[in-house]
Design a protein that fits this description.
The chain has two domains: about 260 residues, HUPs (Rossmann fold), CATH 3.40.50; about 100 residues, Four Helix Bundle (Hemerythrin (Met), subunit A), CATH 1.20.120. The protein is built from 13 helices and 14 strands. The two termini are about 35 Å apart. Bound molecules: 5'-O-(N-(L-cysteinyl)-sulfamoyl)adenosine and zinc ion. 5'-O-(N-(L-cysteinyl)-sulfamoyl)adenosine (5CA) binds next to α1 and β10.
């Protein structure tokens, strides 16, 4: 699929440090990327009710990582998916009487325009699952052949195919190696997040669906497995593998994806290649609103497009989201926009008479701060302090704020 246009990113003198990033699997900070290129796979939207501020916060976190990597001189390879066929999308389409393809297309369009407003650097590959059905079916066929997938009969359709978590255990992955969760928690999360632990005929209640045979009234594609459609985790495993030819540096998404989604995407990739999916499994905190996680299923949404339509400067939305650390769970309030507007106007006034000076020690401070697990709140405070102290605006620092934080002031 086409993504969206690339914002201008000023190039800065010198290079920044290689960032350290928190890894969920080990619970430690890891140096993200020791090679010349850095690869990133981020779980994209399921296109209905896009783009709420929780999504936006997650994509801005990885946008910051991309910007820091580019500044460190890395060649960045970025892939993002679109879950453009899945149960929640089909349910929403049915409930609203809209064709699921139209619903997906309109929401992906909205997402593109939101990302553009927020000046998010686009992935090089933006891939819908409907574009890779054959690749998914081939991968599932290989898993069957390898003895790590099995058939589960159903009353109303051909057999569905499931992943055999126990048989797939290897040095590269075993159940829990990404999430580190105990079995009881996994059982609860599986039931809450799209799994089907109650389904009869599975070898382990946690085993996830790889391929769903066609049901009446549901979309399905011809494939080597017969007619059907992909399960969720195999979609991301296959898209990540198709577009990256080795273990990726960072696999990212919200913390609601730690289990089961990223656990099993990692399991599928390990079973297909013998290698881990990623060096670092990175997760963003959840943005809440009115006391609950902002989510399409609850409907407590603040949409980027509505804020923009109401006249909020997209740079203020960006600053509001960057003012919280990407790993924290936090609640969106109107005060976030108010504070961001004040910040944007004070920074803009400061930058208005910027000197054509192309070196500024503050650039190193900004680089250093962001390299510690993308500490954007601290970076914003440091710039506030600099502005408040009446320090002169230099072209070098104004450009660094643009390149690293995505905020163009002049
Ligand atoms: N299509 C799948 C991933 S393959 C999916 O989770 N789609 S989504 O539309 O529900 O979410 C898109 C991204 O936003 C995911 O990375 C998800 O973890 C993240 N996300 C969803 N809700 C929030 C929230 N309230 N706060 C922060 N991030 C969120
Ligand atoms: Zn995903």
């Amino acid at each position: 699929m086409k993504s969206w246009s690339h914002p201008a990113v000023p190039s800065l003198a010198g290079t920044g440090p290689i960032p350290e990033l928190f890894d969920t699997a080990t619970g430690t900070l890891k140096r993200a990327c020791s090679t010349a290129h850095a690869s990133l796979y981020v779980c994209g939207i399921t296109p209905y009710d896009a783009t709420h501020l929780g999504h936006a916060a997650t994509y801005l976190a990885y946008d910051t990582l991309v910007r820091v990597w580019l500044d460190a001189g890395k060649d960045v390879r970025y892939v993002q998916n679109i879950t453009d066929v899945d149960d929640p999308l089909l349910e929403r389409a049915a409930a609203t009487g809209v064709d699921w393809r139209e619903l997906a297309a309109s929401q992906v369009d909205l997402f593109r325009s939101d990302m553009q407003h927020l000046r998010v650097i686009p992935p090089q590959h933006y891939v819908g699952v409907t574009e890779v059905i054959d690749d998914v079916a081939d991968a599932v066929a290989r898993l069957l052949q390898a003895g790590v997938a099995y058939r589960v009969p159903s009353e109303d359709a051909d057999d569905d195919l499931y992943f055999d978590s126990a048989a797939a255990a290897s040095v590269a992955w075993s159940l829990g190696s990404e999430s580190g969760l105990d079995r009881e928690t996994m059982m609860r999360l599986s039931a809450e997040r799209g799994g089907d632990p109650e389904r009869a005929g599975k070898r382990d209640p946690l085993d996830p669906l790889l391929w769903r045979a066609e049901r009446a009234g549901e979309p399905a594609w011809d494939s080597v497995l017969g007619r059907g459609r992909p399960g969720w985790h195999i979609e991301c495993a296959v898209i990540a593998l198709d577009r990256h030819d080795e273990t990726i540096t960072v696999n990212g998404g919200g913390s609601d994806l730690i289990f089961p989604h990223h656990e099993f995407s990692a399991g599928h990739v390990a079973a297909l290649t013998g290698e881990p999916l990623a060096e670092i499994y990175s997760h963003t905190g959840m943005v809440a609103y009115q006391g609950e996680k902002m989510s399409k299923s609850l409907g407590n949404l603040v949409l980027v497009s509505r804020l923009v339509a109401a006249g909020v400067d997209p740079r203020a939305i960006r600053l509001a989201l960057l003012s919280e650390h990407y790993r924290s769970d936090w609640e969106w309030t109107d005060a976030h926009v108010r504070r961001a507007n004040v910040r944007l106007s004070s920074w803009s006034d400061w930058a208005a008479d910027c000197d054509a000076v192309d070196a500024d020690p503050k650039v190193a401070t900004l680089r250093e701060t962001l390299s510690h697990d993308l500490d954007t709140p601290r970076a914003l405070e440091q710039i506030d302090a600099h502005v408040a102290a009446g320090q002169p605006a230099t072209r070098a620092l104004v450009d660094a704020i643009d390149a690293l934080l995505g905020i163009r002031l002049v």
